[in-house]
Amino acid sequence: MRKLLLTWVFLASPAFAEGQLKVYHWFEYIPDDLVQKFEAETGIKVTIDTYDSNEAMLAALKAGKLGQYDVAVPADFMVGIMAAEGMLDSFTPEEMPNLGNIEPQWLDVPFDPGRKHSIPYQWGSTSFSVNRDVYQGDISSLATIFDPPPELSGKINVLDSQNELLILGSLYLGIPQCTQDREALKALNDMLLAAKPHWASFGSDIAKDVLVSGDAAAGMIYNGFSAKARAEGANVEYVYPKEGHVVWMDNVVLLKDAPNRENALKFMNFLLEPENAAAVTNYAAYTSGVIGVDPFLDEAIKTSPENNPPEGITPGVFAQACDEETQRLYDAIWTNLKK
Amino acid sequence: MAGPGRGTGSGDATYRALVRPLLIPSWLVIGILMVLPVALMAVYSFLTKEFRGGVIWDFTLAAYDQFFLDRGLFGDEPPRIEWTYITIFWRSIWQAVLATLLCLLIGFPTAWFIATRPARTRGIWLFLVTIPYWVNLLIRTVSLRFLLRDQGPMNEALMSLGLISSPISIINTNLAVQIGLFYSYLPFMVLPIYAAVERYNFALSEAAADLYASRWATLREIVLPVVKPGIIAGCILVFIPSLGAFLAPDLLGGAKTFMIGSLIDEQFRGSQGNWPFGAAVAMILMTLVLIVLLVYARAQGRAPR
């Protein structure tokens, strides 16, 4: 719908001389005002297509869309995969004047040492939320979704994403990621099969809506998405479980063979302006990796419990990209779960 | 399709001179939209998968092996029959059969009703049947989600009327998927049956009644044989898209179990990125559909003309 609206806006506007920008982005992740602001400042017309998982984005690019888009927004591990597949273009610090606005901790990251292909977009976490009107008991453990209390059984939505579901399952069982250990994988497989009857649905883009509508009383979800559910009136509490949670950073990457490379760089540089990074945060309710956003942040976002975990929580883990042989095992577990 | 006037030499020559160029568009459509994609799919199903999507040009039977043979989670057990995918196919087929029966049950009387209205109002009735189809299938399916949910208008209306005391849980069940498929494909059943019933000569029913045939006998012996082609066409038009449907299972059924459609989708869009396997599943599905069509063709061939 947003894409349609944007297209309509462009058709209705006079032709721009400065050209275009093709963005491949997650659903519900960039405010329209910000896109319009960029267009007004630069005269570049922006078209946005959306995807709902890192894997779907990778698949579409591999299937021939590479060369049609200028930028995409993969998560940390996916930046590494795309770089290894040779799907990313690099830029020099001179081409990205605002590179210095990146918080030091996000500047030299393992998935893109020295930030040659990517800039931070937002970072956040994945765990789960519980509707406190439905269940008031202890929710400090991942058992809340994998071995739920009777009040929540049958009212749980889990993300339809192999990666995040299997990592949270592994954290729950204390299994390392990307393991080939037979006993551990069998335990993971069995635990998930036993948990599945308690789940109402698998869905990523619906994760917020089902909590707001009451279709689900608990659900795996991203912290910002949960904050939005709360803002929309659901009495949900986001949990930083004692077993750990998934941390991720989404990054804007410069794609190889970008048809509008110059405009892509302008867009990335634009997103590193504190005011603009803050606009994304105010909309998506995650955290930007940019210095100086504080004055522009809404008070509710700045102080949200989803973004400010209590002291002493178990630190989160980043997703790892497994090698082919190991990934095959996780694929088999996922197919088992959904057969 | 009646051929042009035969028997006159000049007409025959004109016919032969014209027929080839006139057939070019059909051949292009069949070639580009059917033969080429299917051939591509067939070739891909025999290639080696590349990690995270894509193919390596080494021919292998790995995709079909994965479909039919189970070598255990770690791939080192002696091969047994793989039930995982057969189960998924069976579930999808069963769901499609149920949807077809449901559509037939409601679609036949509906078509009959429309066809027996006065000619000037039939258009309006048909128009009413097709109106929902001006809206995209995705949007209609999402809307159904809103209607069916526990706190949705349907449950709230029933509860405020005092007919039920707690919400009926329909969303995320097979029933919801059935309702979705039924709603999505009902017109595909109504329209062909309507076309068949409209051609039915109702004097035949009167004649049957005059000859002391019961209503049931009239339906069975006179009406059904005449409208059978419409029923079969309707069943095929509902069965085939239901078999590959994944919007209804995903949005209404909660995506808890793979259907054929979502299994294929997962191979191309999901983390598995196994294109050859996706192509192989699609080939196997197409083979099944072809069998259904062949059965139809034979049934048609035997139908009295």
From TrEMBL, chain A:
| Name assigned to this protein | Putrescine-binding periplasmic protein
Q: Where would you find this protein in the cell?
A: Periplasm
Q: Which InterPro entries match?
A: SBP, Sperm_putr-bd
Taxonomy of origin reads: Bacteria, Pseudomonadati, Pseudomonadota, Alphaproteobacteria, Rhodobacterales
This chain's source organism reads: Rhodobacter calidifons
| Main location group | periplasm
Query: Which PANTHER family does the protein's record reference?
Result: NORSPERMIDINE SENSOR, SPERMIDINE/PUTRESCINE-BINDING PERIPLASMIC PROTEIN
- Keyword terms, alphabetized: Periplasm, Signal, Transport
Asked whether the keyword Transport is assigned, the reply is yes
Q: Where in the sequence is the signal peptide annotated?
A: 1-17
TrEMBL record, chain B:
Taxonomy, superkingdom: Bacteria
How the protein sits in the membrane?
Answer: Multi-pass membrane protein
Q: Which Pfam families match?
A: BPD_transp_1 (PF00528)
* CDD domains linked: TM_PBP2 (cd06261)
Q: Which InterPro entries match?
A: MetI-like, MetI-like_sf
Instruction: Enumerate the subcellular locations listed in this protein's record, separating them with semicolons.
Output: Cell membrane
Q: ABC transmembrane type-1 domain: from which residue to which, for each copy? A: 89-296
| Protein keywords | Cell membrane, Membrane, Transmembrane, Transmembrane helix, Transport
Question: Which residue ranges does UniProt annotate as crossing the membrane?
Answer: 22-47, 93-115, 124-148, 168-197, 230-248, 275-297
Into which family does the record put it? Belongs to the binding-protein-dependent transport system permease family. CysTW subfamily.
What is this protein's record name? Answer: ABC transporter permease
